[in-house]
Amino acid sequence: MLPELKLAPLRYVLAILDSGGFHAAAKQLHRSQPAISMAVRDLEERLGQPLFEKGGGKALLTPFGRWCEPRFRELVAHHDRVCRDALAIARQQRGRVDIAAVPSVASRLMPALLAGFLEAYPGIDISLQDGHSERVNEMVLKGEVELGITSLWLPDDTLRFDALLHDDIGVVCRDDHPLAQKDALHWRALKPYTLIRNGTSRLLEGSPAAELLAHSTLYISNMISLTAMLEAGIGVTTLPRLAFQEEHQRLRFIPLATPHLERRIGLLRRARQSLSPAADAMYGYLMAQLEGSHR
Amino acid sequence: MLPELKLAPLRYVLAILDSGGFHAAAKQLHRSQPAISMAVRDLEERLGQPLFEKGGGKALLTPFGRWCEPRFRELVAHHDRVCRDALAIARQQRGRVDIAAVPSVASRLMPALLAGFLEAYPGIDISLQDGHSERVNEMVLKGEVELGITSLWLPDDTLRFDALLHDDIGVVCRDDHPLAQKDALHWRALKPYTLIRNGTSRLLEGSPAAELLAHSTLYISNMISLTAMLEAGIGVTTLPRLAFQEEHQRLRFIPLATPHLERRIGLLRRARQSLSPAADAMYGYLMAQLEGSHR
DNA sequence: ATAAAATGATCAGTAAAACTTACCATAATA
DNA sequence: TATTATGGTAAGTTTTACTGATCATTTTAT
Questions:
Q1: Protein fold of A7-90
Q2: Which residues form the HTH lysR-type domain (chains A, B) (predicted)?
Q3: Two domains, one topology: B95-164+264-290 and B167-262
């Protein structure tokens, strides 16, 4: 029914018009002149009407050709636009990544990392949102973000986790607390004190130290509230080192030596789903930057 | 630099998405399945990114592929739109003709002709304007109209004239005028009477009757004014038969027998310029309708 | 007026592309 | 576990697009 107008002949026609003749167009397009003639003739046959006047020695458009010219230009321009945009995205010169990270990573690690990424990939837009690890997990799973930076939650065959760094668990208390002078702790050393649980406390689960959780009666999810509690000397808590905010001068972080606990922070992505070029750039960048640096 | 995205592979991709698989798309497109696979792979290589997920058995888009899909659809749709419109014009199902005609033809011949044309070519828009032959000539020459219907003015090698009909020159006078009873006239019979010249009077030039013009002191260009003058009995005039309005009951048309003068009415178009498909339809229609009918 | 140079068209042969048939590997289905 | 999907691969064929040589006209220059 509809003949297929290939783009090359359309370009030939436009080149003829722009350069003023078949020979000039041929040179411009690095083709032989008969190639141009034949392509134009084929195009005219498909359309059922000549585009160029046949008589004179010069290449002049017919009225039909004059009607066609602007549409051909638009169509070719449209093609080139789509082509250019697609390539820019494929080449990671443009695009967008949506990332989610646990708050500690988002606030402690990402600023420097994103600054470097923004410089390396100036055309890529980034959206970063934080959430606790469960929420990050869910966002990746639901496709709300392409990449998550989190501690591994539930190993899932629809998700893929690539470890980036290990983050030791420790105890945080005020500097005048009896524990504050220690260099390393055994979990039993915490038993006499009030333990404030927080969002990261479930990292203790499955270890001997889990016993502490059972005796804890205070749970604070918000990090700001938690540090306020600790600064008020109400109790102690456990935190991964990365989640410990060093700028609080009266708080101390003491590594938990026995059991040695750590969370594995890494990149989370859907397993059977490839990344967008922009996300792939981010993925590669993060892997390269954090490879070995904190392990 | 920019790779050329051929339209066929884009259609393949869309067909895969619409039909849900490579095999189904192949059947729908009347191609073999490997043809689809190879075209898609080639397209992916050109873009530098896969469009479909490789792992699973099903045809699922990558994020990059999801970005591409709507643009591919738009591009293909754009192509089809241009293609369809161009074909409609080429096939004379749509388009526009601008015509100019001398007033007599415009009012006496064109109504019936255009009615027929409108029926035969329902998609074609027509613009008809009238003007004296010199003006029609100029409009065709300047490209203001594609076709003129006029008596040949100056044979010009940039214009082409195709005769349609011969229009006899005669004398017009009131029914009580001495000449009104004659069947045919010799030019000298006019000498005693007041001759009113009009726009068609120069048709007498170059004939013996031209002598009459020298003695005429009244020139009326407007046909309504001219008939009013004739009805008032002020004088007589010469007119081609087609320009004589038979609905004026008190006016008579007497053919000029000696010299036998006629104007050749025909189609005027630019010589070295082909017609738009719509104008070509009009040209062919008019030639067919008037061929022989009035000659 | 004549020669020279330019225009686009034509034709045969060739290189490139797109496609088909046959077959393979893998994943979902019965 | 056999079956029937899926899509991928390879060799061979058809189709398309192109080149090089040549021609007919028209325009330009002498």
A1: Arc Repressor Mutant, subunit A (1.10.10)
A2: 5-62
A3: yes
